[in-house]
Structure formats: structure tokens, C-alpha cells
Amino acid sequence: MVGEFSQTEVGFMKRALELAERGRGQVKPNPLVGCVLVKDGAIIAEGWHDHLGGLHAEQMAIADAEKNGHSLNGAIAYVTLEPCNHYGRTPPCTEALLWAGIGEVVVSHQDPNPTVRGEGISCLEGAGVIVRQGLLQDKSRIQMQSFLNWCDSRIPLVTLKVAIDKNGAVDDRAEDSFRFTSQESLDAVHRLRKDVDAIIVGVGTVLRDNPSLTVRRIELGEGKQPLRVVLDRELKTPIDSIIVNDDHDTLIFHVEGREEKIAALNSRNNVEVHKLQSARNHSGVDLHLLLSLLGDRGYQEVLLEGGPETARRFLAAETVDRVVLIKADVDFSQPFPLSLGDEDFSAAGLQRLSDVHWGVDTVSRWSKAGLGWPVDGWP
To answer: Which of 9, 35, 164, 272 has its CA 20 to 30 A from that of 246?
Structure first.
């Protein structure tokens, strides 16, 4: 037994957590949710929240049961998050469960969203359904960490991604910008981009690389391209840069700049320009206000892909929640050093996890204490 739950029930909820992962990168701002329906000790139907606007996990599982001719009268639902009890893009899941004749619901984690927050459980119990809570709650909390963090703090989690050569340099002054990590690392970075709401870079990255900062190497599926955010103190972003002229959204924060440049950038359909500075930071865009603004827009996960100075500023402000440090087996001839190391990550409140390998690259992973890595193998 795990508390009041049997090992068989643990297996059911583990399966629900596995199913929830199928929606990663496709359901935000909604959380990942999985559900299995059990009758006579066996799983008879499965569901997950697959994409924004699609069926919720409970609704998909009920549809799966009906499709295969299973009666749900008296069945037990194992669901990773408290069922919703409000009308949104879909009808309430509580209504679907009651209509289907579900007799018991086992919930892994209560929903902290103010539109739910216990109402789903109360509704089910009020209708005579048995509800038990807390099965594998630690695992569901880790899986839904960006959603839960946003509900609590209204700011997104920040993952810093940096690629370096074998000596800790981020670039080679002797060469034009080029990709030096393994194909496996490149694929992983694009999976990471798919899983975030926004990508943040400093203007130096835009000037040197003219990047697109989009998901390209993997299928986007039902997901959407992340917002590109540029920290541009003096508004140096070129009018002819890719992020200003493609069809994807870009948000540029500046401290100073000419009115004609602001007007030219704002004239692009996909670009917003905002002045952002506060009394606590006179040297550039205020990072705490930046994250608060992104949180106000509902963004739960952001990826920091800027250069050493941008990384240093975020670490100094203790606003980094995870670090993905990719070390490639290359040696730059005229290296531009990262000048950040383990002591800097530790000073920012991060703890080192076990290293992994993406192809021939070694990947060091760091995370805030108590946060946990989103899922094994992430991204």
C-alpha cells in the first residue's frame, strides 16, 4: 500500500501520468492531464488532453470507452488533476463523469486554478461520487510544475540553455556563426522550444546570428510557435531581421530609442515594442518586471537563449529555475568564453542533477531545489 492506495492503483495513476505527456507542447495554457477508466480491476479506456480546445482527458477516456462498447456504470476514474467544473473551451469534466455513471474518482493533484480550486471535487462528492486524493501527487506536481507555479506566482519558469565547446566557450571569433552541437542536441533544443511559451534573447544574439527562434526540426503538431522576446536597451534590433519580418510574434523591450525606430518596428504586424525600466535597475530592461508582464499574459514557461551577458543578468537576479548546459566535443580557435561556471549556478540557488548525453554532447542539468525535472528525458 502507498497510504490508502494499493500498488495496483499506483500502476493505474502511473499510466495516467504517461498519457498526460502526449499533450506536452500542445495544451498551454492548460496543464498536462491524463486519465484511465478502470472496471473490475482492469483499464478499459484511456484519455489525455491532447491539444488546446480539444477534449479534456476525462472526456477523451469516456469517448474511448463508448467507442469500444464498454459500460462505465460504477467504473473508477484515475485522473492526474482535479476535474474541472466550469464551462470553458469544453463543457465541465464533472458533468461528463456524472453523465457516464462513474462511481469513484481518484485524483492525483487538486487544481489550484481559481476557476476550479476544489469545486470539481465538491461537485462530484455532492452527487454521491466517492473521491480520493493524493495518489502520486509528487509526480503530478512535477509534471505540471509550470502550470502550478504560474497559478501560485503568476510568473513563468525560466530555463537557461547554453551551448559551449570543450573549454567553456560559447562562440568562435574566428568564424561566422555556426552550429557546433550534435544533431541530437539540436533536436532536443527544438523539443524544448516547442514546450515553452516564449524564447528570450539579448539584442546581441539578434545582431550576430539573425536567428528565427522557431520550432523547425520537429513536428509542431497542434502546438504553436513561441513568442520571441528581445532585450534591447538601445533599440538596435535591425528592421530587416528575420524576427521582425516573418509571420511569428516578437516582443521587443527597450530602455531608450528613437521615436522613428519605435514606429518602424511597431508598424510590423507581428512586432510589439515596449519601454520597460524601473528604479531598481538603471542598466537595462528590468527582468522582474519582464517576467511579471509575461506572466500577466498567461505565459508559464520561457527559454533563455541569449549570450553570456543575458545569462549572467538572469542568474544574478536569481530568476533562473533550470539550466541546460550542452558541452560539445569541439575546440574553438578564437574562443569567446561563457565566463560562468558551477559556482555561479550554485550561487543562483540551483542544484546540479545527473548529466545526460545527447549524441556525443554532454549535457549538465541544473534545477532549483524542490522543483524537480519536468519528466525523465525532458526535453
So the answer is: 164
Cell of 313: 543578468
Name the pTM for this structure: 0.93
Query: Are 365 and 138 within 8 A, CB to CB?
Result: no
Burial profile 5-36: b = 16 or more Cβ within 10 angstroms, e = fewer = beeebbebbbbbbebbbbbbbbbbebbbbbbb
Q: Is 334 exposed, middle or buried (0-12, 13-18, 19+ CB in 10 A)?
A: exposed
Q: Let me know if domain 153-366 sits in CATH 3.40.430.10.
A: yes
What backbone phi and psi angles, to 5 degrees, belong to 367? -150, 150
CATH 3.75.10.10 at 5-143, yes or no: no
| Alpha-carbon gap, residue 16 to 18, rounded angstroms | 5
Task: Determine which one of 58, 82, 119, 301 is catalytic.
Answer: 58
Q: At residue 7, what are phi and psi to the nearest 5 degrees?
A: -65, -30
Window from 177-186, 247-256, 287-296, 312-321 with minimum mean pLDDT = 177-186
Helix, strand, coil % over all residues of the chain, rounded to 5: 30, 25, 45
Q: In whole angstroms, give the CA distance from residue 30 to residue 9.
A: 25
- Percentage of residues in the chain with pLDDT exceeding 70? 95
Q: Where are the beta strands (DSSP E) in 18-90?
A: 34-39, 42-48, 76-81
* Angstrom distance (rounded) from CA 149 to CA 117: 15
Residue 191: φ, ψ to 5°: -65, -40
Q: Tens of pLDDT along 56-115?
A: 999 999 999 999 999 999 999 999 999 998 777 778 999 999 999 999 999 999 999 876
Instruction: Tell me the Cα Rg of the chain.
Output: 23
Nearest 5°: phi and psi at 64? -65, -40
**Does the annotation count 259 as an active-site position?**
no
Work out the pLDDT band at 128, boundaries 50, 70, 90.
very high
